[in-house]
Amino acid sequence: MTKAFHSSGDVIPDRRAGYAKMLAESGDHAAAADLMTQALDIVPGWAAGWDMLGSYAEKAGDLAGAISAWRHLEALDDAGVFGAGLKLAAHGAGRAADGTAVSYVEALFDQYAPKFEQSLVERLGYRVPQMLDALVNQEMARLGIGGFARALDLGCGTGLMGEQLREKVAFLEGIDVSAAMIAETARKGIYDSLQKAELVAALSARRAEADLVTAADVFIYCGALPPVLAALVPALQPGGLLAFSLEAHDGPEPLFLRPSLRYAHGIAATRDTLVVAGLEILRFETAVLRQDRGAPITGMLIVARRPPVELTAANDGQGGNVAA
Residue ranges of the Methyltransferase type domain (predicted)? Predict the structure, then answer.
C-alpha cells in the first residue's frame, strides 16, 4: 500500500477508511471526514488515518478540523513522511523547518512515480523541461558552446529533463531523493549514472565537476535558495551553466509555502540571491509552468553561469547581461 493508505491493523477502521475514500472521490468530503473520525475513534494512533482526515476536512472547508487532524498527525509521524509540519505551516498554523522536508518529498514521489508522467504531462500540461532546454540551447548558440562534457540533472525524476539534454551531454548524471523515481528512469537508459541522494548532500562533495546543472521544478520543494546555491555553485566548473525553474510570486517576501506544499519564490528576491551567490544571470523569464487545480501556475525559468576564470576577478561575482 502507498503511504496514503497504510492499514490501521484493524479491519473495521480500514473498511470505514475505504468507504470514506469512495465518498471523497464522489465529492462528499464532509461525509468522508465524518467516517474517518469514526475510524480514528477506534484506532487513535493511526497516522495515515489522521492524514486522510486532514485532507478531507480541508476539502470540506473545515480548516479548523484539518489543522486539528494535522496536529495529531505531527505528534505521531516522527519521520515527517506525511508532511504534517508543512501542512500546518502552509495554513498559518506553524512554521516550516528550514530546507527540504526530505522524508515527505521522498515518500511523495515514491508514491507518485508510477503515474508521474501521465499526471504531470498529460493532465497538467507540464512543459518545463522543454522550455528550460530551449533557453539552454539559446545560450549555447550565443556563447559558442558545442556541447557539455558532464551534466548533473537534479531531481531527475523519470528523466523528462534528461531526455532533452541527452544529445548534447557526453556524461549525464541524474540525482533524485526518490528510489521509485530512480527505478522508473533507469528503465529508459537515459543517464550514464543515477544516484539516490538528497541534492544538497550530493552537491556538497563535488568541486568544479559539471559544466551544466539542471533542476526542473526541484527547488520548489527546497525552501530558501541560498543553502542550495552554496552547495551548487562550487560544483559548477568556471563558465558552467545552471538552468532551473521556480514557482513565482510578486510579493516582497523571498518565498512562501503554498497550500500545495510547494514554495513560491519572489522574483526580485531571486535575482538578488543569484547575484549574491556569485552567478551571472543569462536568461530570466516568467512563464506558465503547469496547471494546478484548474489554475495556471506562473514561474521563473532561469539560466545562470558561474563566471569564467577570466571574468571572475574583473566582475567580482556581480551579475552580467540579462535577457528577458
Answer: 152-242
Residues 6+ apart with CB under 8 A from 109: 116, 157, 176, 177, 178, 180, 181
Tally of helices (H runs) and strands (E runs) in the chain: 14, 9
Q: How much is the average pLDDT of 213-220?
A: 96
Shared domain for 142 and 282, answered yes or no, is yes
Per-residue model confidence as pLDDT tens digits over 113-134: 887 777 776 667 788 999 999 9
pLDDT given for residue 311 in this prediction? 53
Phi and psi torsions of 180, nearest 5°: -65, -40
Domain that holds residue 89: 3-97
Query: 10: Cβ–Cβ under 8 A, 6 or more apart, which residues?
Result: 42, 43
pLDDT band at 296 (very low <50, low <70, confident <90, very high): confident
Distance, first Cα to last Cα, the chain? 46
The residue assigned the cell 526530505 is 102
Percentage of residues in the chain with pLDDT exceeding 70? 93
Q: Are residues 286 and 142 in the same domain?
A: yes
DSSP H helices, 118-240, are 128-143, 160-165, 179-186, 199-204, 225-232
Q: Is the pLDDT of residue 287 over 70?
A: yes
CB contact set of 228 (below 8 Å; sequence gap of 6+): 199, 200, 219, 222
**Does any domain span residue 107?**
no
- Rounded to whole angstroms, how far apart are CA atoms 144 and 97? 42
Residue 36: closest CA among 53, 23, 21, 48: 53
Residues 77 and 192 in one domain: no
Handedness of CA 88, 89, 90, 92 (dihedral sign): positive
Last residue of a domain, one of 97, 129, 154: 97
Same domain for 48 and 124?
Answer: no
Residues 173 and 70 in one domain: no
Q: What is the mean pLDDT of residues 255-276?
A: 93
Judgement on whether residues 151 and 265 belong to the same structural domain of the protein? yes
C-alpha 261/C-alpha 62 separation (Å) is: 18
